[in-house]
Amino acid sequence: MNIYQFPKDFCWGVATAAYQIEGAVNEGGRKPSVWDTFSATPGRVVGGDTGAIACDHYHRYETDVRLMAELGIKHYRFSIAWPRIVPDGRGTVNEEGVDFYKRLVDCLHDHNITPHATLFHWDSPQALEDLYGSWQSRQMAFDFAEYVTAVVSRLGDRITHWMTLNEISCFTHMGYDVEADSPHAPGKRVNSKKEVWQTSHHALLAHGLGCQAIRAASPVPCQVALVDNFGVTVPINESPAHIAAAKKAFHTCTQNGGIIFPALTGNYSPVMLEELGENAPDIQSGDLEIIHQPLDAIGLNIYTGTYVRAVDNEKGYEFLNLPKGYPRMHMPWLNIVPESIYWGIRHISETLGRNDLPVFITENGCAAEDEVTANGEVIDTDRIMYLRQYLKSAHRAISEGYLLKGYFLWSFMDNFEWAWGYSRRFGIIYVDYSTQQRIPKASFEWYAESIRQNSVV
């Protein structure tokens, strides 16, 4: 028996996001999102690329779902585009937009694939940016909840696995900045760090109100999750001292103490609040109760990690810079740290004290410098190497009793990689953007065999 065997009920899946694959930005009653505006602004996206066509999934979803069935997955995580459902961000619901997702989800069911819908994956309506500055306004949380109600009341008979928001830190802290115009995400330069933290607080509020809206609107029992990409602190070696240091450091790594902590524990990390001082966000009475909703699962997007060691200083730890030759994949930040999956899951259980909460890896994967060979193949053994090591780390978490229930590979196919445009490829299917041809890569076959054997092959 393969030592990397997964439990019989383990959920194997793939993940995508609406703006990255759908295209059809002016069809079916959809109005612009902030990403339409951002990508159409000269100098913002590599190559001047936009998501206007992307993978044309809006028109080709049936072909794509057939490929998912061929892959052997039983679970598909995708996102629903707010400006397709409520084009002005608030008010009138666009039933033509709803119908697209009905068709998509019905197609998934026809192939025995369970839909997992993310309600917000960065593409907020431009109308709300024009009206009140998107996440800078507390009103955004309430408008999000109204949109969620519109979606779940219409699709809740077909979808029972919901995720509220994807990666709060990316569309807030990477979109709003004090010192620079952020190159990564739509947003703007604000006047203080406190204003940046206020945007992520508003997003947390949207998550809490969104959870309440899902449960109130769903016609059947359903599961509700949040998807976060917290900074994973990894001990340089697993001595008791370095493990303790990694757990301490988890509070202040990236925005952990101010996003995943309130969502899962009901309070901002006191260590983070002390570090922020006057830059901490304003928290109104009742906010933390709204934010700290009961969840059925937590989704973790994990690609890399930060090494930490115990040292004799005020904090008891230090974050370590990587040496010059440290291996990485085809993104500046995509350092290969396979044990980050194990430690991400362990931090949920031990550092955050949520050993009751089922965990899904909702994104893991890598960009590689894929090339089509003379005979039309893409032999991405580098991606297979990356995925194999990360899945072994995921298996370790399960073997030690942590509640990992499923894995969604990012991504099903090459797509619009945000500010990198089409210059970076994360898919296990190669997309020729000039013809929209789909070419399954060697990693597609590898993942299919892993699913078939229910183990790391």
Task: Give a summary of the structure in a few sentences.
With 457 residues, the protein is α/β, with parallel strands linked by helices. Helices cover 39% and strands 15% of the residues. α9 (193-217) packs parallel to α11.
Report on the architecture of this protein.
It is globular and about 60 Å long. It is 39% helix and 15% strand. Helix 15 links the parallel strand 12 (359-363) and strand 13. The chain has an eight-stranded parallel barrel with strand order 1-2-3-4-7-9-12-13, surrounded by five helices. Strands 8-10-11 form a three-stranded mixed sheet. The longest helix is centred in the middle third of the chain and has 25 residues, at 193-217. By secondary structure, it is α/β, with parallel strands linked by helices. The protein contains 16 helices and 15 strands. The protein has one domain (11-453): Alpha-Beta Barrel (TIM Barrel), CATH 3.20.20.80. The model has no long low-confidence stretch (mean pLDDT 97).
Secondary structure blueprint with pairings:
Elements: E1 11-15, H1 18-21, H2 34-39, H3 57-71, E2 75-79, H4 82-85, H5 95-110, E3 114-120, H6 126-132, H7 139-155, E4 161-166, H8 168-172, E5 176-177, E6 188-189, H9 193-217, E7 223-228, E8 233-235, H10 240-250, H11 256-265, H12 270-276, H13 287-291, E9 297-301, E10 306-310, E11 317-319, H14 339-351, E12 359-363, H15 381-399, E13 404-410, E14 429-432, E15 437-440, H16 442-453
Parallel strand pairs: 1-2, 1-13, 2-3, 3-4, 4-7, 5-6, 7-9, 8-10, 9-12, 12-13
Antiparallel strand pairs: 10-11, 14-15
Helix pairs in contact: 3-5, 7-9, 9-11, 14-15
